[in-house]
Design brief:
The chain is α/β, with parallel strands linked by helices. The protein has five helices and five strands.
């Protein structure tokens, strides 16, 4: 089973190898508009319980993303408890992605 967290560098390496995990951004809409990782899908944390089974593939690799990694970890744990086995939270969130991988992503 995958670790509960994935580092920004490990995620970048997955993407560079051609793997395409679902990047699930669980922040609020205003946060998503302010800064986001290319290709991420917005689904605010509060919407996850009502939308997860309709919009997410329980068999796919999902990486949850928030500002600093707390909300995304909560969502990752919840999804795993619902049977989504390949879910990880981005350690440090979009802020760490901006600091370590892509400085073009605004920090807020």
């Amino acid at each position: 089973m995958l670790d509960y967290e994935i580092t920004p560098l490990a995620l970048q390496q997955l993407i560079e190898k051609g793997e395409k995990p679902t990047l699930l951004d669980v922040r609020e809409p205003w946060e998503f508009e302010a800064a986001r990782i290319d290709g991420s899908v917005p689904m605010p944390m509060g919407d996850v319980p009502s939308r997860a089974f309709q919009e997410l593939d329980p068999e796919s690799h999902i990486v949850t993303i928030c500002h600093h990694g707390v909300r995304s970890m909560n969502v990752a744990v919840w999804l795993r408890n619902q049977g989504f086995e390949s879910v990880q939270s981005l350690r440090g969130g979009v802020d760490a992605w901006s600091a370590e991988i892509d400085p073009a992503v605004p920090r807020y």
